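Figure 2 data, in text form.
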Amino acid sequence: MGIGIREDIAAARRRDPAARGSIEIALLYPGLHAIWVHRVSHALWHRGWRFVARTVSQVARWLTGIEIHPGARIGRRFFIDHGMGVVIGETAEVGDDVMLYHGVTLGGTSLSHGKRHPTLHDGVVVGSGAKVLGPVTIGARSAVGANAVVTKDAPADSIVVGIPATSRPRAPKDRVDDIVSTSPDYLI
C-alpha cells in the first residue's frame, strides 16, 4: 500500500469516530475512492490526456456521488466525510489536512478563463451544504459553517458563517466539530 493511501486511511480514522478499521475505510469510504481516482485523473489531465481524464473523473462521480474536476489541485490527507453531492471545480486548490462534509461546493461564479474557484489553505474544515464560490481564499485552520455561502476571503484561524457568510476570529473555545455540525441560529 502506497504512503499516500496509508496517510489517507489514517486521516479518515482520525476524523471519523465511526471508523472501525483500515480495511473497512479502504473498501467502504467513497470520499477516499473519489480522492484516489482524482489522483489518477489529475495526472492524466497534466499529461495532456484531457478527454481521458474527464472520462475517469465522471466514472468516479457516477460511482461515488462526488465530482472532482481533474484540474483541481488537492493536498495530502484530504478527507471527505460521507461525500454525496460534493463538487470541486477545475481551478480549486485544496491544502493539506482539509476536511469537507457532504453537499459542499467549491464552485465558480464566472464564465471567464483563469482562476475562478476557491483556494482552501491547510487545515480548513467546511461544513455540510456550504458553498464556497469564486476565486476566494479561506485561510489556514479556518472553519466554514454548515450551509454558509462564502463569496469573500476569510483570514487564517477564522469562523465563517451565514448567508452571505461573514468571518470572525476563531476563539480558543471554538471546536471545529461544534461549528460545522450545529444548525446556525443566525439564519432568518
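Caption note: The chain has five helices and 15 strands.
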